[in-house]
Amino acid sequence: QVHFVESGGGLAQPGGSLRLSCAAPGVSYMVYATGWYRQVPGNQWELVARIDSAGNILYADSVKGRFTISRDTAKRTVNLQMNSLKPEDTAVYSCRGFDSSGAPIGPWGQGTQVSVSS
Predict the structure, then answer these.
(1) Which of 20, 76, 105, 108 is deepest in the core (most CB within 10 A)?
(2) What is the mean pLDDT of the chain?
(3) What kind and span of H or E run contains 110?
(4) Pairwise CA distance, residues 109 & 106, whole Å
(5) Cα-flanking dihedrals φ and ψ of residue 98, to 5°?
(6) How far apart are CA 56 and CA 95, in angstroms?
(7) Which tens digits make up the pLDDT trace of 29-73?
């Protein structure tokens, strides 16, 4: 089973920052694009940010100017820097990879919990 591993979640105060990291040991050669998604219980998964090997980046309107997605080639990870956090950002965050044809690689991971509260 291909397993994408998320880390970096936790508790932050409003206006604070967290940095998430996504890795997929053993399958990096297959990954053309990686997206960060989030889900509040009872809601649908929503795309937060996506980056591909050509450098194309997409952000949800709700996080533009606050979140930054990037690739770390040396560490073979895709990171999501989250600044100016709001309580509305509270959710489970999960990453998912896609091959060059657009097919997802592996299932949803367990995700990492991000909680923003004072």
Answers:
(1) 20
(2) 91
(3) none
(4) 8
(5) -140, 140
(6) 17
(7) 678 999 999 999 899 999 999 999 899 999 999 999 999 999 988
